[in-house]
Please model this.
Amino acid sequence: MARKIRQLIKDLEKAAFINRGGKGSHRNFIHPKGIVITVSGKPGDDAKAYQEKEVEIKIKRSKK
Model:
C-alpha cells in the first residue's frame, strides 16, 4: 500500500528539512546543506512511487 503525502512530509521534517511553503498543493522544502525538494499533493493523497524514491534519495544525501 502506498504511503501518504503527510508521511513523506513528516520524514522530511524529521531529517531537518524546513517547509518553505508553496502554491496550491505544492510544498517546497530546503535542508540547511542546500538540498531542495518539492512535494506535490494533498496530505491525504497516496504518494506516487517517484515521490517516495525522491524523498528517500534527498534524505540520504542530507545525512552525508
Summary: The chain has two helices and three strands. The longest helix spans residues 49-62. The mean pLDDT is 95. The radius of gyration is 11 Å.
